[in-house]
Every structure is written in structure tokens, then in C-alpha cells.
Amino acid sequence: MIKVAPSILSADYVNLQPDIEMVDKAGAEVLHIDIMDGNFVPALSYGPGWVKAIRPITKMVLDVHMMVQNPERYVEDFAKAGADIIGVHVEATPHIHRALQMIQNAGVTPEVVINPGTPVSAIEPVLDMVGQVLVMTVNPGFGGQKFLHSTVAKIAELDAIKKAKGYDFDIEVDGGVNDQTVVDCANAGATVAVAGSYVFNADDPVSRINAVKDATK
Ligand code: DX5
Ligand code: ZN
Q1: Collapsed DSSP state (helix, strand, coil) of residue 166
Q2: Partner of 18 at 20 to 30 A CA spacing, among 59, 75, 93, 203?
């Protein structure tokens, strides 16, 4: 069964604590926190202060997805704020190896992220350094977009490399994930599913978390 990572991008910011406690109680293992810098992606979201504020209210794994140009600038801040996983886009820095090293040195699990237009070969040299690979299944920047099915082949490609080389990183998918689209992702080897609008833009978010899990039993 896949692990579920609700994305607070679609949560109620005024009632963030109740929303987080609800998904925690519902059995979500990971909380996905989308950092947007208005540069790598057009939107602005939130910074390390939010991670620091969220840290004491949940034991869920805090998964910080940095949609930030030159993420090296902020790795320390997010580590200090209490992130468990920090994800950096290979497209956002000429120094992906150094960025992942910085995350590792800060005592946080390093994650590398690839956009839909980026091939798996672009991250192959750093796969031995990461605890998680995030395969974007939409172009990053906004919640509520349509799942891009062409990304599924990359999940399978990563899973094959993982098995061939004996790596044990998680494979996370992000964007347009629901109880339908998650099935092919899980079959291809995804182990963590981010879900934003599917969970939070629903009358019963708890049943949506269960639906994603049940679809991958
Ligand atoms: C998109 C973000 C996602 C977003 C997913 O750029 O990285 O984490 O919150 O939202 P949904 O699940 O609605 O596509
Ligand atoms: Zn994300």
C-alpha cells in the first residue's frame, strides 16, 4: 500500500492546524510542504517559518519540496526549521550534487526532484545519494492540474535502476494524483503519493486518503 503525503498547498491556511491534525489522524504518513519562490515557479507560497510552526504539532514526516532557484541558499534554514526530507529540483541548480550534500550534512534526508520534461538520466549520477526521488507528474507551480500520464514510464525506469543497483530510495509522485491516477504510479514503483486538491478540496478528506491507499492495496 502506498504512503500518502497530503500537500498543505490546498489546505485551509486559516485553519491549518485542524487540517494537519485531521490528515495525521487519518493515517497519512507524510506531510508535503510546497515552497515556491516566484522565480523557479511563478507563485509564492511560504518559507521556513511555516515548517518551524508546523513541526511541533505533528509527528508526520515533513517533506519539503523546494520549487526554488538555487535552493542551496535555503537548505540550512529548512533543516533548522525541522524538515525531515528536503527536495531540490535538478533543473534549479547547476550544482545538484553539492545541494544534496548540503542536505545530507544538515542531517536531513536528501531528495532529488525531476520535472515532466526532464529525463531520468539527468539524475542518475546522484541516485546513490538520495533517500527519495520525486517524479513530478505535472509541471510544478500550482495545485489542481491534470496528471501527465507520460511520466509513468519514468517511474518504471527509476524502479528498474533502484532494483538493479540495490538502492532503497522512495519514489514519490506529485501532481494530479487521485484514486485513479495513483494506480499506474504504484504499479510502476511509486511508494509515496502526494495529493493536494484531491484530499483537501473534498467534503470528506479522510475518505480521500483512504481511497488512495485502498486503490494501491
Ligand atoms: C505542484 C505542487 C504539488 C501540489 C499538488 O507544483 O508541487 O505538491 O500541491 O497538488 P494537486 O494534488 O492538486 O495536483
Ligand atoms: Zn509538491
Answers
A1: coil
A2: 75
Catalytic one of 19, 159, 170, 174 = 174
Side-by-side strand order, sheet with 192-195: 3-6, 192-195, 170-174, 132-136, 109-114, 85-89, 61-67, 30-36
Q: Domain holding 105: CATH number? A: 3.20.20.70
What is the Å distance from ligand 2's center to 105 Cα? Answer: 23
Which structural domain, as residue segments, surrounds residue 144?
3-215
Q: Which tens digit of pLDDT belongs to each residue from 30-77?
A: 999 999 999 999 999 999 999 999 999 999 999 999 999 999 999 999
- Whose cell is 522565480? That residue is 39
Provide residues with CB under 6 Å of ligand 1.
7, 9-10, 32, 34, 65, 138, 140-145, 174-177, 194-198
Total domains, the chain: 1
| pTM of the complete model | 0.98
